[in-house]
Amino acid sequence: MDNSKSGWRSIYPPVLVIAVLLAVWEGAVVWGGVPEWKLPAPSVIVKEAIAIWPRLMLHTGATVQLALIGFAGGAAAGFALAALLHLIPGARRAFYPLLVLSQNVPVVAIGPILTIWLGYGILPKLILVWIVCFFPVSVAMLSGLNDTDPVLRNYMRMIGASRQQQFWRLELPNAVTHLFSGLKIAATYAVLSAVVAEWIGAEKGLGHFMLLSSKGYKAASVFASVFLIVALSLTLFGLVVLAEKLVVRWRPAKEAKKV
Question: Is residue 141 a contact partner of residue 83, using CB atoms and an 8 Å limit?
Answer without folding.
Answer: yes
